[in-house]
Amino acid sequence: MIIRWRKQQDYFIVRLYQDLMGDWVLSESWSNRQNNKDMVNHTIFHCYHEARAQLRVISRRQRSLGFKKTATKEQQIELDFG
């Protein structure tokens, strides 16, 4: 899952995916297009529901800061490694 937010020249992207060990990874990346200072944070969750709860917290925070969700044209495919 990929969610993008934007406010003027600032952007914030969240990716939620399951790694090969079965953990859920919530990757946050943000930057300002003018200064090119990119930041990245990865948080590991053992449970999908915990990761989704954190995603809801992030979504509320981004809205409160004035960010708007942008449409994504990417398609996510699921691979069954089991």
Instruction: Report the top-level CATH class.
Output: Alpha Beta
Approximate helicity band = 10-25%
Backbone shape: globular
Largest sheet: 5 strands, antiparallel
Distance between the termini: 20 Å
Q: Quickly count the helices.
A: 1
Give the mean pLDDT.
87
Write up this protein:
The protein is α+β, with helices and mostly antiparallel strands and 82 residues long. It has a single domain, classed as Nuclear Transport Factor 2, Chain: A. It contains 1 helix and 5 strands, in the order E-E-E-E-H-E. Strands 4-3-2-1-5 form a 5-stranded antiparallel β-sheet, with helices on one face. Strand 3 (24-32) and strand 4 (39-45) form a beta hairpin. The longest helix is centred in the last third of the chain and has 17 residues, at 48-64. This is WGR domain-containing protein.
Topology:
Layout: E1 2-7, E2 10-18, E3 24-32, E4 39-45, H1 48-64, E5 68-70
Antiparallel strand pairs: 1-2, 1-5, 2-3, 3-4
Properties at a glance:
alpha+beta; 82 residues; five-stranded antiparallel sheet; WGR domain-containing protein; Nuclear Transport Factor 2, Chain: A
At a glance:
This protein is of the alpha+beta class.
